[in-house]
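Example record

One chain of 524 residues, shown exactly as stored in the release files.
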Amino acid sequence: MSEPRDLIIGVDAGTSVIKAIAFDLAGSQIASSAVRNSYRQRADGAAVQSLDQTWKDCAAALLGLSERVDRLAARVAAVALTGQGDGTWLVGAEDRPVDDAWLWLDARAAPTVARLSQGGAERARFEATGTGLNTCQQGAQMAHMQATCPELLDRAEVALHCKDWLYLNLTGIRATDPSEASFTFGDFRTRRYSDTVIAALGLGLRRGLLPQILDGSQVTHPLTEAAARATGLRAGTPVTLGYVDMVMTALGAGVHTGAAGAACSTVGSTGVHMRAVRSDRVHLNAEGTGYVICLPVPDLVTQVQTNMAATLNIDWALDLAGDLLAEAGCPASHADLVARMDGWMDRSTPGALVYHPYIAEAGERGPFVDAAARASLIGLSAGHRFPDVIRAVVEGLGMAARDCYAAMGAMPQELRLTGGAARSAALRRVLAAALDTPVRISAREEAGAAGCAMMAAVAIGAYTDMEACIAEWTTPLLGAPEAPDAALVPVYDGLFTSYRAAREALAPVWSEMFARRAAQGDRS
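Predicted structure tokens for this chain:
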């Protein structure tokens, strides 16, 4: 008797870790395997990653999963992929890499973004994609390559993203998905490439590098013999090309469960804030920022604003404390310092300081785009102590989330949270009060891998449609609503007014400081 095919593997190829997660067909997580990822950054703003090593790491994660699940290969009904978004993964003859991938962290395209943003076609490009132009994106990066190193594009046969590269290695198919295709080169309404967008980027002569668009909730391709040998899985296993990691995580965490006004924020190293809306109800802001990213549900998209740094700000503040304690001969681990955060928050006054959480060297991209933006702490006096700084940093994340949602229209009626920081009761209280909305935590541990696995579950017929899959995989894992603190809401209303006024006033200061650093050869 043949083994029942009762498992789906979701692969989430993030910036720092590649994870392979086994789920049963009802959405329960069975086992996981992870391999550390690596990339390199340079003083010129480059952030690059080896394509070959990424594939080897993905295969290693899948092999590691087989060590944790008995008879894994025989039981796998499908494999699904998602991964870090944006970036440019160029592939040439015989499906070999042209060069290292340019990651979403790569800032080299900043001069090209500045030039294109002033062009007469920029608003038309934004209204088609729903996505503000920034250095993260493949379109901007390819336009910069065209201007500065066209030989890279000359050697390429196709321009892929991270998960697309892994799909090519698993199936032999060069393709991308509707989400990445439409927010980079297309129209979110049609989920197809747009001549208007491609022309606005000056890439008409490079259109041949754009791969076919596949919807992995409808189409799969079989695992090749070579990929089977590398991963330990069976040749012929259906493989699904998922959407970009941001929306896969949101799908797994509850951005769309049928409830009106729901939104989803992922608070990790970066912050991702999104709401699900019909494509004809998208709010395109005057500033031309944010993303519109398709969901694997007909006529449904996510409006997205992203912070370049979220918990990176908390890490920075805790590292300062750790350095001082180490100097004093009292070393403390990062985990020890995290455990003290709620106590520090309790010993500080809400709304006393303004902190702008723009700690990333690449500046900020949501809800405004400014590579020169940097973090700031405003309102300090001699009476403030470290707990006040910690509170300001955490409140800064709440203010940044509110800033992002304000750029997308009305505040959410309910916020679903995922990411490691969602475990912090202090952060949840801040977010609930900052947005004046109830907060619910998703108990889904690996929402990104779950989101693409859900697509595979629909593609192989385990569910009739995505709505049915959501009802079993996602909705039951949402925790009870946590109401906002009524006393904090007006405090944070006032704080947000100061936060916005200060960040708008600081823009010319950031620019002047950035110019001085550039003249000195320092981009940090």
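Notes: Residues 7-246 form a domain with the Nucleotidyltransferase; domain 5 fold (CATH 3.30.420.40).
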